[in-house]
Amino acid sequence: MTAAAPAREQWDDAAAAAGTRVLTPGVDTSHLGILYLDGISVSFDGFKALNDLSLIIDAGELRCVIGPNGAGKTTMMDVITGKTKPDAGTAFFGQTIDLTRLSEPEIAGAGIGRKFQKPTVFEQHTVYENLELALKADKRVWPTLTARLDGAARDHIAATLDTIKLLPEAGRPAGLLSHGQKQWLEIGMLLMQEPQLLLLDEPVAGMTDDETIRSAELFVSLAGTYTLIVVEHDMDFVARIAQRVTVLHEGGVLAEGSMDQIQQNEQVIEVFLGR
Q1: pTM reported for the whole predicted model
Q2: What's the rounded Cα separation, in Å, for the pair 205 and 74?
Q3: How far apart are CA 194 and CA 149, in angstroms?
Q4: Which one of 25, 28, 102, 137 has the fewest beta carbons within 10 angstroms of its own beta carbon?
Q5: Cα(3)–Cα(254) distance, rounded to whole angstroms?
Q6: Nearest to residue 94, comparing CAs of 106, 110, 82, 81?
Q7: Is 90 exceeded by the pLDDT of residue 10?
Q8: What domains lie within the chain, and their CATH numbers?
């Protein structure tokens, strides 16, 4: 099993190979890793939400993050997306982009997309229009008012509709979609921004069994083209999609490995079952 110390060693090796880190455009994944968290600590009124958290995510990986309530999962995503600045530690996107120096919009523009548990879509607009509104483009007032979709943009929307399995619903108002379909639409809206890393917070909460299965198929299909970090409490769903699982507890990494390894880990069993 891999925990914080081995992750720290991997970080040191990568840092040594990369040399001095300088903020530059683009995401350098030449050392395979796309996200490096090292020694991250965050405190709120004396409570340590994250405690020396170290984690490496490889480019194209589908990583599941699990843990009991209060383990630090949401705070970890807040640090990655710039909502919360760490008290200590470093957070890099690729080899060169220091996330602690960027604002939330800058981090989103750099290629990190985040989906919250509750879907947020424009319910009065059609599915197609939602994707059109999310298209990565100049969002200033005049360019937006005068923008016209070109062939490449229309192809991008059509391909995204096909990916999220909502092509038959393209002309339907988003407010009429099922809960699961709204979740897929929001993921499609993130894909329109051309991210490299997707953070998905409890994406199958409230879904039917069929929607959950279809979501698993979607996430597995996205892995490789995109890097996904999925925070989820549904262990059956995690077992269905997991390539590698990280268990957080009391703000740090308790265990890491395949789902089989995690299920057999005595420390993990004790934390989840309270033995």
Answers
A1: 0.85
A2: 15
A3: 17
A4: 25
A5: 6
A6: 110
A7: no
A8: 4-119+195-273 (3.40.50.300)
